[in-house]
Specification:
heterodimer, A: alpha+beta, twelve-stranded mixed β-sheet, four-stranded antiparallel β-sheet, 20 strands, B: mainly alpha, 13 helices
């Protein structure tokens, strides 16, 4: 196993001298300042997904984002209640519908001491737009230009309104322009402006980071060393937490909660996620293209029973296509459970012996097979036969592209805390072309109009469009997912994130 | 003998070419689109098409194969789609963990398996025999996944004697190696027992004892050596399984080996990684088989190849 390591050797003579000087300097500081910089201990987190890359522009993996956020800072941060707050950008505003201006934080340096400034932002953004090999590139194709205006301002223009740009920027770590000289070498030992520095990465097993003593938020980080271990198997992740080897785990399933709660030294945190479980229909195909049939299906499903019995209460009833907290969320009437009415609709519409294919991506969502079986039984009660097709993921997605399904089990995590991606993907003609074949010109127009930067306009457009969707039932919204974390009781200040990130810069260990 | 080895090597080369063609074609005809698996679910079709073009998947199949073969002769197995790094490098990084685990499991398999088998055969019909049979049946019937989790819960969580998972020190190796060895160990124990029992009844063993050989010498030098040929065949095959079939053990113990890598790669349609792993393991498998065939002549001088 090869380790890429930036600091594998023990402290050398020179570093020792530098460290002791730093120590002496610290001894001279006033007490308050020293208290601020106090750091101790080591934190270990167990993540569900293996990190594939150290390049923040080349993945949409949530585990990787968790790791990268500790090494790289984005321009904008997002809080747990979906508010966008300054990170490397101190402020930003929309100059007009096609232009954003970001004012940058001063006196920030990368881990090697080079200053962070407009050149970094210009480099990072132009790179992600121009290098179409990068996984995040497609999101930035609408950018027209990225220009600096002085050393600490950047002006970004786009071909069409890009109101969700600040949200997308929360997922893009800023790189030093020097990274461009030899990207392969840079991403072996990357540097960012983040609270931790890269130390080593044992592929498939763990990544080790050490505190950045000159981080621009002086009170962070709280620990000297941070290790992320990649443990995809949940029972193993939980065992490592219970054995005290690691301090936090993500993606806990409801059926494991009691075990964890019963373990000494372990606490369980949960929070409604920015994710909805929703099942799509093939809207160009008989019989589910008929809105009446979809309505009957929706009425025949007892969502509360599924939440209570199968998700053990770890789900929240839906009141909108978009979870609460995000821009555009509006509270709509709950989805009723009324099998009698469902039967009536089916009878009136002349449906007899309807049979539909429900496709699942094997093992993709917790409890999905049990939930689908329950739904099949519920739909059976009103006379709809469900054929469950539990297929390997790539095969299932091929069927979705080909349109050879009636219902498809899916979820949507509203990354990056903005619904534009969801709407654009699933409810525009171009976006849904190889997915659901949704087509409603009015909705398409509202989505386009909702792309502007003005939050008031966005809210209004999205409210109208959500009402249309709620009536059309182009998907079945089952519930909002709940994110569950297992955490050692030695951790202080841990915040369970609604976006599944594991963020530990502000977490201390007792 | 030399001619035999050369002939076998030539056959092995043909086998590997066959494997490479099969793997290449099968990967590309099964449904599933690599770009769609790499991009977030529901990325626009234009992005999917662009990424597939970047990955070289828009070329016709025979052109892709020609490019692949040409690169392989230069030692280049292509770039992993998922890791964006040379596939060979990605695989070789994992090879160390796989070999470590396989060797440790092999030591347990041979050490414990053969000993159990000997004891059971020598003490045929006694409590020792029954105990070793029970162990062997358990080893072969307990699912790897369950056994691994139970070992973790017992030795990692309850007793805290060993780490639950991970890839750091020799202590991390114990539980996965035991889990992985359970099945082949049981197999070897049963096989050793039955082939030893068969040999024990032969005339030459009676002769050996009659001429006053120590029992120890009879068992180890005469019985075991004669029982070793079928054992060697099975071990040869088991090494292949240990190297390639550790997927479940690797998953349970978060062991960064090749098994889990290739399953993920198949899952995500990371063609270059799948190709590299399969060609590499086919090579290892073919070589081990050749080695086993040659070892027969050492163990049993009556076997000769011409």
């Amino acid at each position: 196993m090869r380790k890429s390591s930036a600091a594998s050797s023990p402290v050398g003579r020179r570093q020792f001298l530098a460290l002791s000087t730093a120590g002496l300097a610290a001894a001279g500081l006033p007490r308050a300042a020293r208290a601020q910089a106090k750091r101790s201990g080591e934190l270990v987190a167990g993540l569900s997904e293996r990190m594939l890359t150290l390049d923040p522009a080349n993945h949409y993996s949530i585990s990787s984002t968790s790791v990268h956020r500790h090494m790289f800072d984005p321009l904008v941060d997002v809080t747990n209640d979906s508010k966008f707050v300054p990170a490397l950008a101190e402020s930003w505003r929309a100059v007009n519908n096609l232009t954003w201006r970001f004012n940058l934080r001063k006196n920030v340096t990368f881990h090697d001491g080079t200053p962070f400034n407009a050149d970094s932002v210009v480099f990072t953004l132009r790179r992600v737009k121009e290098n179409t090999k990068l996984i995040k590139s497609f999101v930035y194709q609408d950018l027209e230009s990225v220009e600096k205006d002085g050393d600490y301002s950047v002006v970004i223009t786009s071909r069409r309104p890009f109101g969700s740009l600040p949200a997308h920027l929360t997922m893009l770590g800023m790189l030093p322009p020097g990274a461009g000289k030899n990207e392969d070498a840079f991403f072996q030992k990357p540097i960012g402006t983040g609270p931790f520095r890269f130390v080593s990465w044992t592929h498939g097993d763990n990544i080790v980071l050490s505190a950045n003593p000159s981080y621009w938020k002086p009170a962070q980080p709280k620990v000297e060393k941070l290790t992320f271990r990649f443990i995809p198997e949940l029972s193993t992740r939980a065992a490592a937490l219970r054995a005290g080897e690691i301090h936090v785990i993500d993606r806990v399933t409801p059926d494991l909660v009691e075990t964890l709660k019963g373990s000494r030294g372990v606490k369980v945190f949960d929070v409604p996620a920015v994710e909805a479980q929703r099942w799509i229909f093939q809207l160009a195909k008989e019989p589910v293209k008929d809105q009446r049939l979809r309505q009957a299906i929706s009425l025949a499903i007892d969502r509360n029973v599924i939440i209570k019995e199968l998700l053990l209460g770890y789900g929240r009833p839906v009141d909108s296509p978009v979870p609460p907290g995000l821009i555009g969320h509006t509270s709509l009437p709950a989805k009723a459970y009324d099998p009698e009415k469902a039967k009536q609709i089916l009878k009136q519409a002349g449906y007899k012996d309807v049979s539909i294919d429900f496709v699942l991506m094997k093992d993709f969502y917790p409890k999905q097979l049990e939930i689908t079986q329950a739904v099949a039984a519920m739909l059976g009660e009103v006379g709809i036969k469900v054929n469950i097709k539990n297929l390997e993921i790539a095969t299932a997605r091929e069927q979705r592209s080909a349109g050879t399904y009636d219902m498809f089990y899916s979820g949507w995590a509203h990354m990056p805390h903005d619904p534009d991606w969801y709407f654009g993907q699933w409810f525009t003609k171009a976006g849904s072309e190889k997915l659901t074949r949704y087509n409603n010109p009015r909705v398409e127009q509202l989505i386009a109009e909702g792309r502007v930067p003005d939050p008031k306009v966005r809210q209004a457009k999205y409210e109208e469009l959500e009402r249309i969707l709620w009536d059309e039932e182009p998907e079945i919204w089952l519930c909002y997912t709940v994110a569950i974390y297992g955490v050692s009781d030695r951790l202080r200040n841990f915040e369970p994130r609604r976006d599944y990130y594991v963020l530990l810069s502000d977490v201390a260990i007792a | 003998m030399k001619a035999y080895v050369l002939r076998r090597l030539w056959q092995s080369a043909l086998t590997l070419v066959g494997v490479s063609v099969l793997v290449f074609v099968i990967l590309r005809v099964v449904p599933g689109d690599p770009a769609k698996m790499l991009l977030p679910d529901g990325a626009p079709q234009s992005a999917v098409d662009e990424l597939n073009r970047q990955l070289g998947l828009h070329e016709p199949l025979h052109v892709q194969y020609a490019i692949f073969v040409r690169s392989v002769f230069r030692g280049d197995f292509g770039q992993s789609f998922q890791y964006r790094a040379p596939a060979l490098q990605v695989v070789v990084e994992r090879l160390g963990a796989t070999v470590q685990l396989a060797l440790a499991a092999l030591v347990i398999t041979v050490g414990v398996g053969v000993s159990l088998g000997i004891v059971a055969a020598v003490r045929h019909g006694t409590g020792y025999d029954y105990a070793s049979t029970v162990l062997a049946v358990l080893g072969q019937s307990l699912p790897n996944f369950w056994l691994g989790i139970m070992l973790i819960l017992l030795f990692g969580v309850a007793l805290r004697w060993l780490p639950t998972s991970g890839f750091e020190s020799w202590r991390h190796l114990i539980l996965p190696a035991v889990t992985l060895a359970a099945f082949p160990m049981a197999l070897v124990a049963r096989l050793t027992r039955s082939s030893m029992l068969e040999i024990l009844g032969r005339d030459f063993i009676r002769t050996g004892r009659a001429k006053g050989l120590a029992e120890r010498a009879v068992i180890l030098r005469h019985v075991l050596r004669n029982a070793a040929v079928p054992l060697l065949t099975v071990l040869g095959l088991q090494i292949g399984t240990l190297l390639g079939g550790a997927v479940i053990t690797e998953s349970v113990f978060a062991w960064p080996g090749m098994g889990k890598l290739v399953v993920d790669a198949i899952f995500f349609r990371d063609f270059p990684v799948v190709q590299t792993v399969l060609i590499l393991s086919a090579t290892i498998f073919v070589l081990i088989n050749l080695l086993v065939d040659l070892l027969y002549t050492v163990i049993d001088p009556r076997i000769r190849y011409s």
